[in-house]
């Protein structure tokens, strides 16, 4: 019976009818960091429909480094609209959501409009953050027009030019 629990925890159950909208690679100084896939039943992507961002890591990165990079980007994109207290609370939530990764580790974040976000490692749900504001600012790291990697954003949104 335990295997059924894992099957029901799959993120695909939370984003029914999801199909890949776009894919891309994130590299730093020529090194592959992760491959990304954006999944949604809605195309073009809208923030009133659930979607999933799947990251398949290509190298080892500690949970702390993943959390700190996320905090830094949320702070950069949000400025003073997010308090230091909120950032600290979100940092705790991300520490519960992420794991140390190695090449091949798959972490999927699911955006749930008006509810928050769920995070899966492989197919198993790792943690849920019940905070709609967190979900918006977290996924903005990749999807906001001011992202640090606009080419990856365009690829994920299915707008990449050949």
Summarize the structure.
This protein has 162 residues and is α+β, with helices and mostly antiparallel strands.
Span between termini: 47 Å
Largest sheet: 6 strands, antiparallel
Count of helical regions: 5
Order of helices and strands: HEEEHHEEEHH
Secondary structure: number of strands: 6
Helix content: 25-40%
Category from helices, strands and their pairing: alpha+beta
Uncertain segments are 1-9
Oligomer: single chain
Q: How much is the average pLDDT?
A: 92
Give the spatial strand order of the biggest sheet: 1-2-3-4-5-6
Topology:
Elements: H1 2-8, E1 19-28, E2 31-40, E3 51-57, H2 63-78, H3 84-97, E4 106-112, E5 116-121, E6 124-129, H4 132-143, H5 150-156
Antiparallel strand pairs: 1-2, 2-3, 3-4, 4-5, 5-6
Helix pairs in contact: 2-3, 2-4
Report on the architecture of this protein.
The protein is an alpha+beta fold. It is 35% helix and 28% strand. The chain has helices at residues 2-8, 63-78, 84-97, 132-143, 150-156; strands at residues 19-28, 31-40, 51-57, 106-112, 116-121, 124-129. The longest helix is centred in the middle third of the chain and has 16 residues, at 63-78. It is globular and about 40 Å long.
Tags for this model:
162 residues, 35% helix, globular, 5 helices, alpha+beta
